[in-house]
Amino acid sequence: MSDTKVLVSAPPHIQSELGTKHIMWMVAAALTPAAVASLLFFGWWALGIIVISIFFALLTETLCELMMKRPLTISDGSAFVTGLLLALTLPPTVPWWIPALGSVFAIAVGKQVFGGLGHNLFNPALIGRAFLVLSWPLLMTTWQWPPSSLSWAGTQMDAVSGATALGLLKGGFFSNNSLSLPYLQMFYGNISGSLGETSGLALLLGAVFLLVYKIIDWRIPVTYLGTVLVLTTLRGQDPLFHLLAGGLILGAFFMATDYVTTPVTPGGRVLFGIGCGLLTALIRRFGAYPEGVCYSILIMNAITPLLDRLTVPKRFGEVKKDG
Amino acid sequence: MALKTFRKGIHPPGHKSLTSSLPVEILPPPRQVVLPLSQHIGAPAEPLVSVGDQVLLGQKIAEAQGMVSVPLHASVAGKIIAIEPRPHVSGKMVTAIVIENNGIDELAPEVSPRHLDPEKAKSDEVREIMKDAGLVGMGGAAFPTHVKYNPSPDQSIDYVILNGAECEPFLTCDHRLMVEKPDRIVFGLRVMLRAAGASKGYIVIEENKPDAITVLNRAVQGYPIEVVPVKAKYPQGEERMIIYAATKRVVPAGALPAAVGVIVNNVATAAALAEFIQSGRPLISRIITVTGHGIQHPKNLEVRIGTLLEDVLDYCGGFKGNPGRIILGGPMTGSAQYRLDLPIMKGTSGILVQTEAETPKTAPSVCIRCGKCVDACPFNLLPNFLGLYCEHDQIDKAEAYGVLDCRECGSCAYVCPARRPLTQMFKNTKNKLIAAKRKTS
């Protein structure tokens, strides 16, 4: 033994294979179908936006950490995921500096000022998007229908050129058109919208992957989507349309499930999902914006610590004080 | 019908097939045994012999001190060559009696059957027998068994549960015991039921040991004992989880199982009690599993208490390659050791040798709030928050969030993707809290 070195450490002496890094790269993998779909529908510039966004996210993370003399962490994959997620929330028409500035803001202000991974209060990608929408509202709402999609709205498309499906709804387009909605086309993603939000199919592929490998918990996406479906149905709107048009699926499975900025307790997650759904439905109905996913999640991020505190589970064998 | 179990928990790879089909071999008694006076939780025993004395196999060589203590017996016959501080699994030096084996294994005269009818025995009588046998919990905690059977006037015991879950990965010693000595276990349980005044016994076994379930089902015929197959899930063998799985009773935090009318013992403890009654042999040997990918020939072995690790490892062909970590007990709760002159004790269930590849030196990173620990903790704690409070020494907050309810099963640290040493932090904080409470009271 004298010549052999053995490790002495506290139990447990085995660990699950799933590390932080694995998780982040699995999330990135789960977003790949949506990224590929954006390339198919919106062309090569979609890929350009994604690459620029990721590049600036990684660059900003590195520069911040160099400046603060902290260990470099880009290999943990979290900045990559932030860059990718941000890109997927952008319209396909934006100039190159939009994803660049968005990523810089997302990482620097959304994440690093709080102390880096694990410490940020808000979802960094959504902080980046919110910053862009507030600063360049026109660029961030200039849409483009995929070239192959025009059969849906036919000639009327010219009149509403640029609006997303939700924008059309907000603009009262559907009320004066007896238009039957091509759900299948919406499900594939061959409609106007942000890069990664249009294809429900691609997003659900990734979501199933994350659910099967237990990377994400079902509670938030199910309660989020469920709340939106119930509320829109109650209001007499088409719930399926609300599900497929806009960023709801992307938000529910990939943004509202961000570990750092959402509750850890089962009860907190349910409340978080319901809150997101409520806010999304309200913004879509009454807000100035056609879409409400981004702000709903950000608002719920802000009350996450509160939700965690309100939903501390009853411990096994817990004895209440004073009887 | 769905298998009984508890909520949450984890599924670490079992690796039981390394040894689960290997019959128990008897390790030839070693040249020398080292018997620490502190084999159990509670006060160390007091030596009855001096250096130079000759002792016989099974002879009492140290007497119990105080309420929570048990005597110690010679596990080989021979000469006392030292009574001095020796390395102990706790990492400290602890006084031990060292016996040089004369190779004869001559039995002490008091080692003779007790002629006890399990259905007629009296509680006091059984408790005395348990103590005389030097009996402690053999699942790992090594709590003196007779103390559990000390009745409190306001508590009556309904059930005695034998823990045959063996949920720790790699370990198969209880599994082999159940397959090979089912009658002994059942006899022990019958005596325990009598001692506790309990009406029913349960033997709880994870479903991944169907052979043990079959033989025990046969052995309990005609007795008020039920074999309960449970889901294979960690920590199924944790005392409160096994009680919940078998009876749906929840032991209140801070209370003992007796508070809900239950006593839990390990199957090996029941077998040791039966052996003492039937043959007079006190607790001087036990079954351990020597296993892991860093061991040449994994085995289930019956070894004399006090056998040094190096003697056990030699018999198993030594290490395979360079060992990475040497663990006494299972990988979830066992203790890592760095020396091989440590003795097997009454509560040692196995030796696990991991390879260097199995012992990555990962640095803990920041909590990403994934909640995997929350989904794992069988006590429904929030290990992520507890970890932050412990890290920043906010022990009052840690207490408010229930750190004292943590039983250190290790599930949270096992699943943590940031590799945070949660269990260790909780253990340290608990010690601080308990020390602070002691000071104020």
Detailed description of the structure:
The complex is a heterodimer of chains A (323) and B (441). Chain A is mostly helical and 323 residues long. Helix content of chain A is 54%, strand content 0%. The longest helix of chain A is centred in the first third of the chain and has 24 residues, at 44-67. The radius of gyration of chain A is 21 Å and the shape is globular. The model of chain A is unreliable at 150-160 (pLDDT under 50). In chain B, helix 1 (123-132) packs across helix 4 (182-196). In chain B, strand 15 and strand 16 form a beta hairpin. Chain B has 441 residues and is an alpha/beta fold. The chains are: A mainly alpha (323), B alpha/beta (441). At the A-B interface, helix 1 of A face strand 15, strand 16, helix 9, helix 12 and helix 13 of B.
Strand content of chain A: under 5%
Mean pLDDT of chain A, to the nearest integer, reads: 88
- Coarse morphology of chain A: globular
Determine the structural class of chain A based on helices, strands and strand pairing.
mainly alpha
| Share in helix of chain B | 25-40%
- Count every helix of chain A, treating DSSP H or I runs of 4 or more residues as helices: 14
Strand element count of chain B: 17
Q: Name the chain pair with the biggest interface and residue counts per chain.
A: A-B, 41 and 67 residues
- Give the low-pLDDT segments of chain A: 150-160
Structure summary:
The complex is a heterodimer of chains A (323) and B (441). Chain A has 14 helices and no strands.
Give me the secondary-structure topology.
The complex is a heterodimer of chains A (323) and B (441).
Chain A: H1 20-42, H2 44-67, H3 78-88, H4 97-108, H5 124-135, H6 165-170, H7 183-188, H8 200-212, H9 219-234, H10 239-244, H11 248-255, H12 266-286, H13 293-302, H14 304-310
Helix pairs in contact in A: 1-2, 1-3, 1-8, 2-3, 2-4, 3-4, 3-5, 4-5, 5-13, 8-11, 9-11, 9-12, 12-13, 12-14
Chain B: E1 25-26, E2 32-36, E3 46-47, E4 54-55, E5 60-63, E6 72-73, E7 78-87, E8 93-101, H1 123-132, H2 145-148, E9 159-164, H3 173-180, H4 182-196, E10 200-206, H5 210-219, E11 225-230, H6 239-247, E12 262-266, H7 267-279, E13 285-291, E14 299-304, H8 309-315, E15 323-328, E16 335-337, E17 350-355, H9 372-376, H10 383-391, H11 395-400, H12 411-415, H13 422-440
Parallel strand pairs in B: 1-14, 9-10, 9-12, 10-11, 13-17
Antiparallel strand pairs in B: 2-8, 3-5, 4-7, 5-6, 7-8, 13-14, 15-16, 15-17
Helix pairs in contact in B: 1-4, 3-5, 4-7, 10-13
